[in-house]
Design brief:
With about 400 residues, this protein is an alpha/beta fold. The chain has 2 domains: about 220 residues, FAD/NAD(P)-binding domain; about 120 residues, D-Amino Acid Oxidase, Chain A, domain 2 (2-Layer Sandwich). About 35% of the residues lie in helices and about 25% in strands. The protein is built from 14 helices and 18 strands. A hairpin with a 2-residue loop joins β13 and β14. Bound molecules: flavin-adenine dinucleotide (FAD). The site of flavin-adenine dinucleotide has 33 residues, from α2, β2, β3, α11 and α12. GO terms for molecular function: monooxygenase activity. Keywords: Monooxygenase, Oxidoreductase. This is FAD-dependent monooxygenase. It comes from Streptomyces coerulescens.
């Protein structure tokens, strides 16, 4: 489909134009729904292509309704990782407990999904790529809202005007910075840092996760299949965010290596793999909390607006639900009332999910010997505990049906 085709609806009427920055989870999901509601959508992504593979992510609760409505649930069911066992180890490497994953993640067996991040983004992209314009290897350089629309210049050259711009560009969103200023104001550091990377599966692990804990430190090996590489995670408590390390991979490697220098189990081998890893992902564990998600004709969705942190396991689900709610709120409304409706209908769901975790209190990563001993006791007794009652945070929203499709 050419740009001319995209810019008019079936009756030849000009469609409202929207630029979405970011093509991961929130971006393509939003593009899908906005296209269905009659918008002409362009997505700009700074990476050269959609990233495949990746760490496992959960799609749960209300987010399952979103992917079902998009018609991609069967594909995602086929891609389900089906993690079978979660084994916790003490500091000396002995086993504390081995449990079914849903007992500790809050997921619902046979319903909730865990897929490789690339399988989710691939399914979302495939659902929308024929109807939406994608600009890879480019990004927004400037945004100007002083005219009748949003004037955008692109890093790769060229400028265009859109009716709306949406930032779906993740935790460190540049769109948010354009709109509201530096990230520090909205960044809620949760007291941990983590490094993620892949390493060869020399451990004989299959569809399982093993996690070693010492107070304030955790090392995990996550085998999503039988022969694939394993995902390694090194997570540790650190009272202040290490700003110097965030942009310096060498400093990140040194910080992780010194933090885990005396650790046992498989950690020495993990540190050796970390030194050579070409896919090291290091960040602080944090949330984004904002009083407003929009300004003028620009709004935010997904991690850019309300990252809940990977400790909640809810980032992708919030991104999917947020995209559905934002698009539906704009359907048949002007942007001012559409953005207001988006906040009104979605904020409580976001809050519930963000409140699942507080600073330094992640159940999986106790920071003191006492808290770790309590956590281990709890794990040993898990099978004897009654299941939680009530509606979990990730299912606490029933999706409204928005206006009929264009
Ligand atoms: C190790 C780890 C484990 C996780 N585990 C889980 C889990 O189990 N369950 C779960 O639900 N969530 C999990 N998450 C979180 C989940 O990955 C995110 O919450 C989710 O991907 C958010 O989607 P998003 O589309 O809002 O942002 P992102 O996935 O961060 O995507 C942002 C996109 O914007 C692009 N971009 C960035 N800047 C620009 C720019 N200036 N211009 C153009 N494009 C740009 C990026 O390249 C990227 O494609 C985990 C995260 C990590 C790091």
């Amino acid at each position: 489909m050419t740009r001319t085709d995209l810019s008019r609806d079936g009756r030849g009427t000009p469609r409202r134009t929207v630029l979405i920055s970011g093509a991961s989870v929130a971006g393509p999901a939003l593009a899908y729904w906005l296209n269905r509601y009659g918008f002409a959508v362009t997505v700009v992504e700074k990476a050269g292509a959609l990233r495949g593979g990746g760490y496992p992510i959960d799609v749960r609760g209300t987010a399952l309704d979103v992917v079902r409505k998009m018609g991609i649930l069967p594909q995602l069911r086929d891609a389900h990782i089906d993690l079978r066992r979660l084994t916790f180890l003490a500091e000396d490497g002995t086993e504390v407990a081995s449990v079914h994953p849903h007992t500790v993640t809050g997921g619902v067996a046979a319903r909730d999904l865990e897929v490789r991040r690339g399988d989710l983004t691939g399914a979302l992209y495939t659902a929308v790529r024929d109807d939406v314009e994608f600009l890879f290897n480019d990004s927004v350089d400037t945004l100007d809202q002083s005219g009748h629309g949003v004037d955008v210049t692109f890093r790769g050259g060229g400028s265009r005007t859109f009716d709306l711009v949406i930032g779906a560009d993740g935790l460190h969103s540049r769109t948010r910075e354009f709109l509201f200023g530096p990230e520090e104001q909205f960044h809620r550091y949760l007291g941990y840092c983590f490094a993620g990377f892949t390493l060869r599966n020399t451990f004989g692990l299959s569809h399982e996760l093993m996690m070693w804990n010492a107070p304030g430190r955790a090392a995990a090996l996550y085998a999503v299949g039988d022969n694939d590489d394993v995902h390694g995670f090194l997570n540790f408590a650190l009272p202040q965010p290490p700003f110097d390390a965030f942009r310096n991979p060498e400093a990140q490697r040194e910080l992780v290596a010194s933090t885990f220098a005396d650790a046992g189990w498989e950690v020495p081998g993990m540190l050796a793999a970390l030194r050579d890893a070409d896919d090291l992902f290091f960040d602080g564990v944090s949330q984004i909390r904002m009083p407003r998600w929009s300004g003028g004709r620009v709004a935010l969705v997904g991690d850019a607006a309300y990252a809940p942190s990977f400790l909640t396991g809810q980032g992708s689900s919030l991104a999917l639900v947020g995209a559905y709610m934002l698009a539906g709120s704009l359907a048949g409304r002007d942007h001012t009332s559409g953005f207001a409706a988006y906040e009104h209908t979605t904020r409580e769901f976001v809050n519930l999910n963000q409140e699942l975790v507080g600073e330094g209190d992640a159940a999986l990563f106790p920071t003191t010997a006492r808290a770790l001993a309590q956590r281990n006791d709890m794990l040993r007794n898990l099978s004897a505990m009654p299941s939680a009652e009530g509606r979990p945070a990730h299912s606490a929203l029933t999706l409204p049906d928005f206006m009929p499709m264009a």
